[in-house]
Amino acid sequence: MEKKRRKWRELLDRFVLLRDQSFMSKLFVFSSLLVILPVLAVGIISYQRSAAEIEKEVRLSSLQVIDQAEANIEYYLQDFEITSLKIANSPETANFIQADYTNSGNEEALKSEVRAFLELQEYSRPDISNITIMTNSGKVIDTLGSQNYYPALKMKDEYWYESVPQNGMIRLVSRTLTTRDKQQPVISLVRRLYNSRTLQPAGMLVIDINFRRIEDIANKVTITRNGSFSILDAEGHYVYHPDYSRLGQNADSLLLSKLKLKESDSMVLEGETKDFITHTNSPSLGWTFLTSVQYDNLTMGISQIRKTIFLTIIIALGIAYLAGYGFAAALVRPIKRLQHFMKEVEVGRLDGRVEVESKDEIGQLTIGFNRTVEKLSALLDEVYVSKLNEAELSLKQKESELKMLQAQINPHFLYNSLETIRGMALEGSQEDIAVMSNSLGKLLRYNLKNSSPTVSLQEEIKFCEMYLQIQKFRFGDRFEYQLHIPYWAENARVVKFSLQPIIENCFVHAFGQSTGKLMISISVFQLAPASCVIQIADNGSGIQEEMLNEIERKLKEKSCSSDGKHIGLANVHQRISCLFGEAYSLKVQSQPGCGTQVMMHLPMEMEKREASG
Which among 174, 192, 213 is the end of a domain? Predict the structure, then answer.
């Protein structure tokens, strides 16, 4: 049993898994299987589903179109039925029928009167080609008169004449009207006429309707490029067909047998050609409306899908083979390189390393081999390398310690130095120097006293006042500042060290370009219960349009660029957005010669007071 299992496993490895074959052969076979089988499965399923969906869509659209055409033709012919009733019940027609029984002497006058009445009805409807009244005794009046080359009495020999209903209902048949110039296919609306005294059939009324309006309706029936629309009467004769030579002829017997099965349906009819037939019956007219489409036309899209699938398989195989060749080459190349370097190691050359091109199993194998070679090389040069490493490590450690000592500056030394300067200034009655030294010390403590990214507006304003006082000593009466901070805004939460960079810009840009007295104002306005605006305004020379556009661009890009001397507006803008969200930011408004306003939009979040130590 174990021997058989081992034999089957060996056969599986050799013939199915291609154990003894090259990488290229394996990739060729496996890529073919992985590409062809899924694509074929998808293609077959797509083909079948597409065929079913296309046939379903054509059937539904054909039924909708036929229903619309049926409704339009029914409404159209109902008008002629009303016209036929109007003619049948008119006094002129009644008098003419009565005269046929009474042998009245004024027969010609009655004919002229009836003909004039019929011509008036024909004139009111341009789609009426002829109106004929024929009595049982053989008297005939039609509006064509001498132009009619087909005697009306011959209609008695036609297939439909005897089947005209005796109950006064109409019959619609397809005929050909022969005149001097041409033969015109028409639909004839036929109704029996009755003697008003005896109530017995006395004649026949025939209204010949041309195909003008019906052709318009049929032309609007969109049934693909090579489809056709036709109408059959109750006996299976063509009432309408694009080929006028088939009017009045019987439809194919196979088609008629299929049509009797269901009142409305679609089917595939195989005769001389394979056609997709959709039909529906009109109970009121007794007609069958049908569309015919060659089945090959329906499957053109499906054939295109089949060709696309075949082309996709070919392209996919080509890509798979190219990818397999490249993949095999990528696998074999590092293995051959590793094999070559192993031969170098065998002869004692340990200074080289195999290049690692990937992080897969071959890459990991290469890394492991390189490490092994490195360890072998390290064992040979252990003493020399260890001493060199120790010396280098000692130098680096001393250099690091020196840098750390140089970097250790105690802030308290600066505070004590500033306090000493302040004391000496007070002893020397130098109040300005004492105040300035005190303010500078407070600035340093504010900047380093805590790591919180936000402070209360009151703290930030105090910090700005100290900065402004220092600038006051510098510029004297050349500038003034105003603060308009409402009580409700004092505990508002602001980004730490956000106002001073904006105020500094006032001195750098506005003050430096203006010869007048600089006025800086800081105001707070409440926009809504949940937000406020801090405005820093100056009356300086303003910002040129190009520079203002550049500032707006940097704010939109959230650039953190700085000029190296002070924190830029973009930095403050980004810190506000990061802490409070994208809805809160900076906005700069300025006009040359009219000063600058910087609006800081912030949420109304209150900073919790902390006990000072």
Answer: 213
